[in-house]
Design goal:
Elements lengths: L13 E9 L6 E6 L2 E6 L8 E12 L1 E6 L12 H10 L2 E6 L10 H14 L3 E4 L15 H6 L6 E2 L9 H12 L4 E4 L12 E2 L2 H6 L3 E2 L2 H17 L2 E4 L5 H13 L4 E6 L1 H5 L21 H13 L4 E2 L8 H4 L16 H10 L6 H16 L16 E11 L18 E11 L2 E5 L2 E2 L7
Parallel strand pairs: 1-4, 5-6, 6-7, 8-9, 9-12, 10-11, 12-13, 13-14
Antiparallel strand pairs: 1-2, 2-3, 4-15, 15-16, 16-17, 17-18
The structure holds N-carbamoyl-L-aspartate.
Length: 448
């Protein structure tokens, strides 16, 4: 299948969205979709539609694209599968997700990435795009089969050792050079391992009080600075995963003002926009994550950087873990948090309600920029006639209580357990097919 075909299968149906507000502005309009494409925006009678969705003035956005999802298949199916993760993604408003390579076996060759892409198509709820590993077996020693993954039917464009840092500067340089040849991107988990041996939490007074080994922000900042320089030197494309510190944001601001070559994009996670290391007090491993939750000052710097476009997108780092890996003492627990079904709500709470981002800004950080970074030409498009119908309908006002057990993931490790958050996804439309509506995915059998 090529980029121009319909990854989740065009419906051939006519769907009328009644009374939607594209980007949350203006008077409500009706939007007509036919065979996967938006064919009309304005007033429509609805008499010739197969299906009508009454939106009541809800906000319409381009479908969300997650650059950083751990789907755990193959090898970690007790935490998540392509099917359960795709379900969570569709319910969270996503029409495409990039599936990280730290599976078992590692996605460092064409066979594994093709398997993941195929499973995504079989499930058919979101466009699942495998990320390829940068180094074989994520060992940081030699490059993975980057070219063969890029040329394979899985069409891999983003490469990452996420969970591990590509800390050898020569390998990082080679990866940036190599991926440049096919417009690829290296997504770096920036963490100097020599500065973070045995690290458990943000290095600061809270970790010290609890006797937890620290993960200093400098371990991230120094790698980001080095990699930006390597991107400029090689002309390659660097994507910085999960920016977590005020210092990284400051560096990127400075870098963007002076850089002349290469390309740098950066993501922040919803949890780093809301949560701080004060939560360590609970000693609850739900709050253990890599990079760690940091301070209030970092949270505010990250919000400002996202509003300014210095950090240019939001990615979930959705990291499901089975109960036995979270329901244990802090130091034995695996780092990571669920994120797909709460990302929009956390963004509404941290950025939209405080006036830091409007809905156009939300479309930019959740959809347009991630689609551009991933090279997905059918995603992150403007809402307009002739465009592919990858869309998300949002009720900005309704508040809901997060319950891990009610989320679609196999794992339940949400750090937002019990929190009341604003904003709900009413419906997700992928290539003209309703994939999620009113908190339920639409069965694939319902597709014509
Ligand atoms: N972000 C996380 O805390 N966890 C990630 C990998 C990682 O970055 O350690 C995971 O795969 O679980």
């Amino acid at each position: 299948m090529t980029e121009n075909e319909h990854p989740t299968g065009a419906s051939g149906r006519r769907i009328l969205l009644r009374e939607v507000r594209p980007y949350g502005t203006g008077d409500p309009v009706d939007l007509l979709i036919d065979d996967g494409v938006v064919v009309g925006i304005g007033q429509h009678s609805g008499t010739d539609a197969d299906e009508i969705v009454h939106a009541g003035g809800a906000v319409l956005l381009p479908g969300f694209v997650d650059l950083h999802t751990h789907l755990r298949e193959p090898g970690g199916e007790d935490a998540e599968t392509v099917e359960s993760g795709s379900t969570a993604a569709a319910l969270g408003g996503y029409t495409a997700v990039l599936a990280m390579a730290n599976t078992d076996p590692v996605a460092d060759n064409a066979v594994v990435v093709e398997h993941v892409r195929r499973r995504g198509r079989e499930v058919g709820l979101v466009d699942v795009r495998p990320v390829g590993a940068v180094t074989a077996g994520l060992d940081g020693k030699r490059l993975a089969e980057i070219g063969s993954m890029a040329r394979s039917p899985a069409e891999v464009r983003v490469f990452s050792d996420d969970g591990h840092c590509v800390d050898d500067p020569l390998l990082m340089r080679r990866a940036l050079e190599y991926t440049r040849a096919f417009d690829g991107v290296v997504a770096q988990h920036a963490q100097d391992p020599r500065l973070t041996p045995g690290s458990q939490a943000h290095e600061g007074p809270n970790a010290a009080r609890l006797g937890l080994a620290g993960w200093p922000a400098a371990a991230e900042e120094s790698v980001v600075a080095r990699d930006c320089m390597l991107a400029e030197h090689t002309g390659g494309s660097l994507h910085v995963c999960h920016v977590s510190s005020a210092g990284t944001a400051d560096f990127l601001r400075w870098w963007r003002a002076r850089s002349t070559a290469g390309s740098v994009s950066a993501e922040v996670t919803p949890h780093h926009l809301l949560l701080t290391d004060e939560l360590l007090e609970t000693y609850d491993p739900l709050y253990k994550v890599n990079p760690p939750l940091r301070t209030d000052e970092d949270v505010h710097a990250l919000r400002t950087a996202l509003a300014e476009g210095v950090v240019d997108c939001v990615a979930t780092d959705h990291a499901p873990h089975a109960d036995q890996d979270k329901d244990c003492e802090w130091s034995a627990a695996r780092p990571g948090m669920l994120g797909l079904q709460t990302a929009l709500s956390v963004l509404v709470r941290t950025m939209v309600r405080p006036g830091l981002l409007d809905w156009r800004g939300v479309a930019r950080v959740l959809s347009e920029t991630p689609a551009r970074v991933a090279g997905l030409s059918r995603q992150g498009r403007p809402i307009g006639v002739g465009e592919p119908a990858n869309l998300t309908l949002v009720d900005p006002d309704t508040e809901w209580t997060v319950r891990g057990a009610e989320l679609a993931s196999t794992a339940v490790n949400t750090p937002f357990e019990g929190m009341v958050l604003p904003g709900r996804v009413l419906a997700t439309i992928s290539e003209g097919r309703i994939t999620a509506r009113d908190g339920k995915v639409e069965p694939i059998g319902g597709r014509s």
